[in-house]
Amino acid sequence: MLFDDDLPDRDMTTGYRGPTACRAAGITYRQLDYWARTGLVEPSVRPATGSGTQRLYSFRDILVLKVVKRLLDTGVSLQQIRAAVGHLRERGVDDLAQITLMSDGASVYECTSADEVIDLVQGGQGVFGIAVGRVWREVEGTLAELPTERADDDASPAGPPAHDELALRRQARTAG
């Protein structure tokens, strides 16, 4: 996990399908698929295990997806983003809400205090900042309105009843 911190504990058997993760992070499904296949952001609830299986992304996965998207929007290269994500994974993070990622469009800097942000800006480097705690709250608000799915339930997302016509046809086909 990228952020092993004081985020509220979440049920790791419940996640979000790819289209939901895309919507919450503001990315395309093609980006999501590429980032999962190349190991940038892999689904931690349930990875794809072959044709027809659905990846399930955790809240933290979607948070990372949204941060990566914001960094891409500033002009940071995917190579630099991979390095930054790798650094944060190795380092670990004590308090996510206190991190600000700064970018000059080429590199990514991690700031954990207001003094570090000021020093970076005064040095003429930082031109764009991402307060990760604020992104966390945005993702949380967006996901509250979107369907979840249990990792052990391959049939339907949580929320709508599983007795719709399509589900009944699937059950009949697999039963007989």
TrEMBL record:
Give the HTH merR-type domain ranges.
23-87
Q: Which UniProt keywords apply?
A: DNA-binding
InterPro entries assigned:
DNA-bd_dom_put_sf, MerR-type_HTH_dom, MerR_fam
Query: Does the keyword DNA-binding feature in the UniProt annotation?
Result: yes
Instruction: State the protein's name.
Output: MerR family transcriptional regulator
Q: Name one Pfam family in it.
A: MerR_1
What Gene3D superfamilies does this protein's entry cite? 1.10.1660.10
Region feature Disordered, mapped onto this chain:
147-176
